Amino acid sequence: MWASIALATAVVAFFQFCRNVLQLRRNKAKAEKTGLPVFWIPWTTYGSLSFLNPLIVQVASLIPFISKLKCIRLLDREMSWTALREMEDEYGDIFMIVSPYNITIKISNAELISQVATHRTGFIKPTAGYKVVDICGPSILTTEGEAWKRHKTITGSAFSEKSNRLVFEETLKQTAGMINFWQTQDDNNNKVFTVENPAGDYATLSFNVICGAGFGIPQTWPGEDEITISRTAVPGFSNLLPGTGHTMTLGECLQRLLPNILYLFICPLWLLKQSPFKWMSNIYTCYEECINYFDELVEHARTVGESGRETMNLIGLMLKGSEKVPQNTEPSHSKNAQLSKKEITGNAFIFMFAGHETSANGIHFSLLLLAMYPHEQLRTQADIDRIVGDMSPSIWNYQTHMPRLYNSMVGAVLNEQLRLIPAIPNIPKRSVGDQLVQVDGREFTIPENTFVHLNVVGANRNPRNWPKVTSHITGKDNDMADFVPERWLSKDRVIVSEEKVKDGITDELETASFETYSSTSLVKPPNGAYIPFSLGHRACPGRRFAQVEITAVLSAILQKYTVELDVSAWASDEEVAEMTDEEKRELYYEAVIEAEKVIRRSSQIITLKLSKGDKVPLRFVERGSERFAGIV
Ligand code: HEM
């Protein structure tokens, strides 16, 4: 009997192998018609099977001969970040990858990116790949076509200039809370404080901002007196105490669930729930509490209505008219601009998760890069000084200060950080029908059902779209891999000092939005050349929210403090105090090199961030007491 089973298995395997070879040949022939470079791989880079790819790549990396093979490199789903522009520099900004299962086109070319992203029906979002974040229900992020339009129409109006002002004000309050929290930890004091692992605190800050500004559930930092700061938590949603019937706060719940969200996708819920392994049943508990929290949040908004508290009213907007929609558990496919309850909770979850993790990464990497490049930090501080002087952030004004802070080194730093380390390194699309496109005057057809991969890292670092400048750091013929915020500054820029604003002399930046396109605004790269927020109709609706938040945090921190890499792993405070400038420089370079290695190890767990277990401790010192500025 065993012999028959073995024979049958061999026949099936042989049949499958022949089918795969034929399918691969067919896909290869289709791809070659484009005239682009075509590479083949035996497996797929997309779909549920591709979850095995990290394992395959890791095993292959142990075998020297195999690890060098191009088909193995191409299997790496994080290739755009792990190999930066290696393939693009060798084969060009557009190339195709074929497997027996599908065809993929990888694009770092601005002209083609902009065609793909703006062709609403020809290139759609492959929503199957987003199911993993559908845990509370379908949302604007995970739907397409008519359903997506409904989500977009209803939630879109929440992102207004009025909302940006709320974000600005909430962020400044939260930054004060975070600084106060840091100063009161361990051996820290008001003048010098070390933060071992700041990433978690930036995530808390961003979470608090979206809670307060977006959902009307203000959050406080440990030790903050709610009455003094005139922000009272809504019972059940405070990040200091779990709500009734919960074992953790909403913030803890999200922070524990997000890194493990993949398990909800690959593992049946009953298995997670009943698993004898604590880590698995913990994931289930987080999931269950998360669902309950979002149901309670929607219920809270329904009963409280307009609370008198100024917020973006995200849930309120979604609730309007929703009672007419059957409160089923399934997504509503009706064309009416209303959402079902499940869709409302789905969107609430997405806005909370998309609205905090990405911005937190932006704050984290911006401050880290500024600590690594103290001369850039000095220039940023000089701009902040000219714009707000020593005025307390508690009285900064959104309309007056935000445009000038954004169009200064502060905005330049945030744009440069997102250019180098974008939160989302690849944006997936899928072609619907054969699609004729044009690049550099040449036309070709992207075949139907091709998986399109907009390479954010590859596009952002494409030297073709920026003035050619030799790298001062590496000596390469372009400086695309370097942190150079100045590339964003307009040649004509003028910083209007606070005194001039008081005198009533202002420039044109003080218009309806902080993001202006005048001769004194930040440089605007060609369409499709800089895509950390994607572009076209599926671009990030929270772009300005994030820009306001990151600008406000950086400005408020750097107005008073200088951020340094913590060098205590190499030398004690006393040893540093005894060092010559040359010794300090060498010491700091060692810390910079280590920080660079940690950044390069970053990996994408939903968003690109430091790998699990990695951290770069930072030391914040009151300005004037720096130990390395001017030396490094
Ligand atoms: C630095 C911060 C941020 C970055 C880099 C970023 C980046 C992106 C990118 C690249 C996309 C497109 C994803 C895709 O097509 O797969 C996206 C979509 C989205 N983002 Fe953001 N985002 C940021 C902040 C925010 C904030 C603060 C919010 C909300 C408050 C937000 C809400 C969303 C939503 C709802 C979508 C889905 C839009 C759609 O599919 O129509 N994002 N974001």
TrEMBL record:
Keyword Transcription regulation: no
Superkingdom, natural source: Eukaryota
Pfam family, one: p450
Necessary cofactors: heme
Record field: transmembrane: none
Binding positions for heme per the UniProt entry: C540
PROSITE patterns from the UniProt entry: CYTOCHROME_P450 (PS00086)
Presence of keyword Oxidoreductase: yes
Single GO molecular function: monooxygenase activity
Keywords: Heme, Iron, Metal-binding, Monooxygenase, Oxidoreductase
Similarity comment text for this entry: Belongs to the cytochrome P450 family.
PANTHER family assigned: CYTOCHROME P450 (PTHR24305), CYTOCHROME P450 12A4, MITOCHONDRIAL-RELATED (PTHR24305:SF166)
Name of the protein in question: Cytochrome P450
UniProt lineage: Eukaryota, Fungi, Dikarya, Ascomycota, Pezizomycotina
Record gene name: Cyp3a25
